[in-house]
Amino acid sequence: MVKCGNCGIDVPDGFESCPNCGNAYIESENQNSSNKINVIKCSRCGAEIVSDNELCPSCGNKLEKEDKNLKCEKCGSVLLDKVLFCPTCGSKVSFPNKTAQIKTCLNCGNEVEEDVEFCPECGTNVNVGVKTKHESDSTSLEEKINLENIIKPSVIALIVSIVLSIFGLLIGFSWFSFVMAIILAVGFFAAPIDNEVNASIFGFFVGLILGILENPIIGFMFGSFAAGFYEGYFGSHLIILLILSVVVAYVSNIYLKDNVEDIITKFKNML
Asked: Which of 53, 142, 199, 243 has its CA 20 to 30 A from that of 109?
């Protein structure tokens, strides 16, 4: 006779499972304690269950077992120590109780963990003159300014804003054509700029030039008489366009960067 490790009844020799509860693990009364199967209690009903079972045979509760293996949060695959990406799904691994130092790539500004040697975005060696996240947060205003990242998007946004202004004037939007041009052109092209300081400078430049060109654009389209009438009736909106452009550029760079970059990426993939 053997004893069922789940319900405790005596089971005749030769039975592979308990006829009472269906447990497949039965133990001999004469087994040494060192060979006994580990028994745990169900957290729901309190029944004693063999630890290898996945479900409680009494109430069907799923048993929670301690798993010391690190698993991928996305696909559940078991991960080896110190891996940065899951070999099954490729998602980034988050290590519990690990306070990794964050480094910033000086080439593209992407943040990477201390164990990463090359930036996954641009391939630059991030250990050459690397800055930690804390150091990068305290970067001075002068260090953030990079005119090379401002000139090209500024020229493109200015051309687009002029075209949009002309289109708005043709359909009768009056001076609101310049406001709509600033919101659309500056809002879109400011988002991908590397930081908010350069984005604000970009907005200042576009708003200033478009404000200066407001009356000449009217004169080019409708003649000098119309330009004089426009200026006398509406006045100049240079300050309004300048302030609006800076605000739109800053807000777009802070809150719309990911959305605009996704649009640009999808557009490039379509080409």
From this structure: 243
Same domain, 115 and 153: no
Q: What is the pLDDT confidence band of residue 185, given thresholds at 50, 70 and 90?
A: very high
Backbone CA torsion sign across 216, 218, 219, 225: negative
Among 66, 83, 111, where does a domain finish? 66
State pTM to two decimals: 0.48
* 181 and 83 in a common domain: no
Place of tokens 């008489």: 225
Q: How confident is the model at residue 134 (pLDDT cuts 50, 70, 90)?
A: very low
The answer to whether residue 155 scores a pLDDT higher than 50 is yes
> Do 148 and 90 lie in a common domain?
no
Opening angle at CA 62, ends 58 and 64, nearest 5 = 125
